[in-house]
Amino acid sequence: MLRRLYQWVINLAERPSAPWALAAVSFAESSFFPVPPDVMLVPMCLARPKLAWFYAGLCTLASVIGGLLGYAIGSLLYDSLGLFLIQLYGYGSKMEAFTAAYQHYGHWIILIKGLTPIPYKVVTITSGFAHYNLFWFVVLSIITRGLRFFLVAGLLYWIGPPARTFIEERLGLVTAIFALVLVGGFIAAIYLF
């Protein structure tokens, strides 16, 4: 079943509509959706390595725009939608400490957490809730999200076919590692906040 799912994603990645789906997932992940865009970015870069840089740029742009929605949720709708989303991901009791940390380490929080598997939506919503400077939020989001997505795309572009072969031969292992990193990111976020 895993192999069929992988092949389906690879086939989807080769379709003309794939960039739109990638942009939608990148946008949604930055504000409310739990699945990171890497699940589409990786197979798309493997399927069409010459477009890896375009895909990374698209991910970055859509993620930053989605981050603005997350910021707006935190700033304007925290008492309703923002609090619901934060509690849904298990961070409700940690918001005061996180907001206080923004006063001293706001730049570093955005830069570091944007690179990690910690859900970026927590950073975007909290940035809005803490009324972090919007200009710096956008600039730092572009840097951190761009770095993350261009790093993934660059590795896949330069390694190319051997990466695809490695993933296809060890699909179960790669999937398990990805799942562990994703779950580890959620757990780390709970304990770091």
TrEMBL record:
GO terms for cellular component: plasma membrane. The chain crosses the membrane at residues 53-78, 134-159, 171-192. This is Membrane protein YqaA with SNARE-associated domain. Coiled coil: none annotated. Keywords: Membrane, Transmembrane, Transmembrane helix. It comes from Ancylobacter tetraedralis. PANTHER family: ALKALINE PHOSPHATASE LIKE PROTEIN, DEDA FAMILY PROTEIN. InterPro entries: DedA_domain (IPR051311).
